[in-house]
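Exercise 7.
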Amino acid sequence: MNALLKLPGIENQTVFNLDRWEEIGRDPLVQNWPGRVETDRYGRPIMMCYAEFSHGGKQFDIGTLIQKHAPTGKVTVECPISTSEGVKVADVGWVSKKRLLQIGGRTALKGAPEICVEVISPSNKRGEIEEKRRLYFEAGAKEVWVCDKKGRLMFFIKDEPDSDAGGSLICPKMPKTVDA
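Solution. The predicted structure, written as tokens, is:
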């Protein structure tokens, strides 16, 4: 008899992700970690390096610009989102009040906000950002923005997720660059 057959499966990835995220958040080692934490699909923590100074500045600038140009909603940074591949943390997110009622209620969101933003860090790899973009769209994002090291924004829209749309549909007056 194969012992692996007796291992439990994950029946509902979202419920599993949310429960595991709360469990990890109570761990003193994780609470004192100076960097970012995400999980893989099996709930294993992925510990990442701390961000550099300019990264946080870009997060703040993008959040401020979204607040100015988006419809009424909530802007947040370090936004934990349940995905099919675990909990991923968007650098900035914007969520409408209606969507927040659907996906909120726990320490991580049950789905993606309408806008998810990734600010490129020196440690990021192209495949990692492409995967996060795919996961955010799969989890319900309407737009995923990527901010490069020079502060240039690329806007990806759910209907055309692989090419830069040149601007945001939700925030059409959003500038294409932020201070680097």
